Every structure is written in structure tokens, then in C-alpha cells.
Amino acid sequence: VFSVVVVMLVVHRMLLPLTVFTASAIKIADGDVELKIDATSNDEIGDLGKALERMRLSLKFAMERLRKKS
Fold first, then answer.
1. Which of 1, 8, 40, 69 is a good FRET partner for 17, with 20 to 30 A between their CA atoms?
2. How wide is the angle at C-alpha 22 spanned by C-alphas 27 and 24, nearest 5°?
3. What is this structure's pTM?
């Protein structure tokens, strides 16, 4: 029983950031580039979050440049 609880906690800890990152990616795809993506872990999931944040910032700056040119 203890090992099942531990496994469930580990899986939850891994899946929660992915759920948050998925929701953030959907918002970015819909044009919301103001929502900051916080990625604090130093593993592959954290790397994914950091890459999403870099993408968000890149899109934000590109959109700002386009607005200035219009």
C-alpha cells in the first residue's frame, strides 16, 4: 500500500507540470502571450517549461515588432 501511494505521488508530481504547460501552450496558440510560464525543476519537464517560456517571449516580441510596423 505504501509503495502504491508513493508511486501515485511521483506520477502526480510529474503530470501536474505537464498539465499546466499544456494549458499554457493552448493559451499561447490562442494569442495570449502575457501569461508567464514558471519552470523551476532541473529535469526534462523543467526544460520543456523553459523552452515554452522562451517561445512565449519570442512570440511576444515578434508580435510587438509587427504592431510597431503597422
1. 1
2. 30
3. 0.81
